[in-house]
Amino acid sequence: YKPFGKEERQWLVHPYMLKEYRNRWFLIARVGNNTGLSNIRLDSICGKIKNSSEPFLENDLFDQETYFNNVIGVTIPREQKPMEITIRIDSSSADYIRTKPIHKTQAIKKEFKNGSIQVELKLFNNYELKSTIMSYGPAVEVLKPKELREEIMKMYAIGAILYK
User: Fold this and answer.
1) What is the full DSSP assignment across 86-150?
2) pLDDT tens, 46-60?
3) Which of 26, 93, 125, 146 is 20 to 30 A from 38, comparing alpha carbons?
4) Which among 1, 133, 120, 119 is positioned nearest to 73, based on CA atoms?
């Protein structure tokens, strides 16, 4: 396996499922005897895959039917629970997000006279969530939780410096 910017390594993996996200496939697996899951990009597997004489460890880590219920992408941060997120969507994108939800947990909580809406989501805070929020530009504002709002504000501030 050759991760971005790191040395090639060999792993013993116990594969449990494949998951696609944005045209990239991931193997959801236990690496060695770890008690956590890893998502392994298939396009980073190099060399030959060999059978192991080690016994296969059955999946006792997650329910494949519900594991990805509260996540955008494939990265579920360890030691974290899904957070209640409240966002305001400007009238310019409200109809779009109403008909093409950000995530299946999306619930419209308020509709304003100016056409904007307030939406709640229940998701893990990961890179893909922040990228999705940022993809709407100024049409989406994170209201809660405070830590996610501050992360997005910081990303905008750093990005704005690039365009000065």
Assistant:
1) EEEE-HHHHHHHHHS-SSTT-EEEEE-TTS-EEEEEEE---HHHHHHHHHTGGGEEEEE-HHHHH
2) 888 889 999 999 999
3) 146
4) 133
Residue 133 pLDDT > 90: yes
Task: Decide if 93 contacts 136 (C-beta within 8 A).
Answer: yes
Contact 38, 30 (CB under 8 A): yes
Q: Cα(27)–Cα(132) distance, rounded to whole angstroms?
A: 22
Separation CA 49–CA 143 (nearest Å): 47
DSSP 22: T
CB neighbours of 55 closer than 8 A, spacing ≥ 6? none
Confidence label for 79 from pLDDT (cuts 50, 70 and 90): confident
pTM (predicted TM-score): 0.87
- Nearest-CA neighbor of 106 among 93, 91, 118, 92? 118
